[in-house]
């Protein structure tokens, strides 16, 4: 990997792109160019950068609109804006929007190099590569994951509560560990509990502890997980499954930094970083009164969203090989590998169970493969076993899921252009809009 800082240079003036590329390369930068905002967004999806240097005035999408999309997708990536139309209103808008710096054309060479150096220094050049080393159990080469790990690095330096959202099997506990390791309490304990796996009547005792004799079966004193996590991190997985009465008590603990074990009359001070996670839609749970809004805002100071495995397909082969290596080390045998056809099956699968499902499939095929090479037939059989093991759903629900996913796939293919999507689906535009509305699909998310 290159030790040079990586710049994404965006301008619809081809001659200026060439000139600035030469200038930046002479100052030891690695440069990727894009002659439009759309091309820039495409490059950002495929690789990581340390800074974006973009023109303000462009034909398709202007620099401020591009910067807004970058901040939504990659919030820790600094953007430096250039313009030949420098004006106070533009500069004020750019500054308010969080633009790192605003440079007026003709660009002063020294000011440009100084500004980029400062942006790279504050952003942390090479962090996307370093994150993988510092969190060696997170295996990825995905740009979206690199940017997520950069957010982890930044939030780790604070003491705010973090809520991790993502589908089941995406690795929320691993990300919580990464937050812990990046924090000031990394030398302390990391304690985890799945709130949905503990009976409601026992969860309070598990979290806060209890005094001997405080309830039937309490034959000894019990130290709760908050106390075990003192000066460290407590990870509350599946926080959306916590009973309402306990949510009130958790909110009080977060506010006052004190716990009261069951059966105790005195409160005990605690110093614990809380990281929580859920696969549920908590705003929806708030609306149906199954989750407290005040607790949600207390937990969700920073939200980290883990992408599904289908959103980071470049990691499938990497993870599959990683699991093969883990199995080989555990069983003290040679590493088995996938045939090209077998890997193609893995890459084309949707993985509704995400990384956990991929790991299960790899475990199966490695165990049942007699030779060193895993065949496509073995993978197909393992995927079929996974399919049969999952609970069947009603036919109407299966149709609904298929129709929704079909619409999403078509919209992705045409970057959210509804007219083109309707044409591909061989439906008129009016009917296609009705289907989009029926499935509550946000077309804007597919616009690139």
Automatic annotation (TrEMBL):
Q: List, alphabetically, the CDD domains matched.
A: AAA (cd00009)
User: Where's the Sigma-54 factor interaction domain?
Assistant: 138-367
Give the residues annotated as coiled coil.
Answer: none
Q: Which UniProt keywords apply?
A: ATP-binding, DNA-binding, Nucleotide-binding, Phosphoprotein, Transcription, Transcription regulation
- Boundaries of every Response regulatory domain copy: 6-120
Give the matching InterPro entries. AAA+_ATPase, AAA_lid_NorR, CheY-like_superfamily, Homeodomain-like_sf, P-loop_NTPase, Sig_transdc_resp-reg_receiver, Sigma_54_int, Sigma_54_int_dom_ATP-bd_2
Q: Short name of one Pfam family for this protein?
A: Sigma54_activat
Q: Which residues carry this modification: 4-aspartylphosphate?
A: 55
Note the PANTHER family from the entry. TRANSCRIPTIONAL REGULATORY PROTEIN (PTHR32071), TRANSCRIPTIONAL REGULATORY PROTEIN GLRR (PTHR32071:SF116)
**Name under which the protein is recorded:** Sigma 54-interacting transcriptional regulator
Phylogenetic classification of the source organism: Bacteria, Pseudomonadati, Pseudomonadota, Gammaproteobacteria, Alteromonadales
């Amino acid at each position: 990997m290159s030790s040079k800082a990586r710049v994404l240079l965006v301008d619809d003036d081809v001659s200026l792109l060439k000139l600035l590329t030469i200038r930046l390369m002479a100052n030891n930068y690695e440069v990727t160019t894009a002659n439009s905002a759309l091309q820039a967004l495409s490059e950002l999806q495929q690789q990581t950068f340390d800074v974006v240097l973009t023109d303000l005035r462009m034909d398709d999408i202007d620099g401020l609109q591009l910067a807004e999309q970058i901040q939504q997708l990659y919030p820790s990536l600094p953007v430096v804006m250039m313009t030949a139309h420098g004006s106070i209103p533009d500069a004020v808008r750019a500054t308010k929007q969080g633009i790192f710096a605003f440079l007026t054309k003709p660009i002063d060479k020294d000011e440009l190099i100084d500004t980029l150096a400062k942006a790279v220094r504050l952003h942390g050049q090479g962090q996307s590569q370093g994150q993988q080393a510092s969190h060696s159990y997170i295996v990825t080469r995905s740009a979206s994951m690199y940017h997520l790990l950069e957010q982890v690095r930044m939030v780790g330096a604070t003491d705010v509560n973090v809520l991790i959202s993502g589908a089941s099997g995406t690795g929320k506990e691993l990300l919580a560990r990464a937050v812990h390791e990046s924090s000031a309490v990394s030398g302390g304990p990391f304690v985890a509990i799945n709130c949905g796996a503990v009976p409601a009547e026992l969860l309070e005792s598990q979290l806060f502890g209890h005094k001997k004799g405080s309830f039937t079966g309490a034959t000894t004193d019990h130290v709760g997980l908050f106390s075990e996590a003192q000066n460290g991190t407590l990870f509350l997985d599946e926080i959306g499954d916590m009973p309402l009465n306990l949510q009130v008590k958790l909110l009080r603990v977060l506010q006052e930094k004190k716990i009261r074990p069951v059966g105790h009359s005195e409160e005990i001070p605690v110093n614990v970083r809380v990281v929580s996670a859920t696969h549920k839609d908590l705003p929806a749970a708030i609306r149906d009164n199954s989750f407290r809004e005040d607790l949600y805002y207390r937990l969700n100071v920073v939200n980290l969203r883990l992408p599904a495995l289908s959103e980071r397909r470049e990691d499938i082969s990497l993870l599959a090989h990683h699991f093969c290596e883990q199995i080989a080390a555990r069983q003290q045998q040679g590493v088995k590998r996938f045939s090209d056809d077998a890997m193609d099956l893995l890459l084309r699968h949707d993985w509704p169970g995400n990384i956990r499902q991929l790991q299960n499939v790899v475990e199966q095929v490695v165990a049942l493969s007699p030779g060193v090479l895993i065949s496509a037939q073995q993978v197909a059989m393992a995927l079929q076993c996974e399919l049969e093991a999952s609970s069947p759903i009603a036919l109407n629900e299966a149709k609904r899921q298929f129709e929704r996913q079909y619409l999403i796939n078509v919209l992705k293919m045409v970057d959210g252009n509804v007219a083109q999507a309707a044409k591909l689906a061989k439906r008129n535009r009016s009917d296609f809009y009705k289907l989009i509305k029926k499935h509550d699909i946000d077309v804007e998310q597919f616009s690139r």
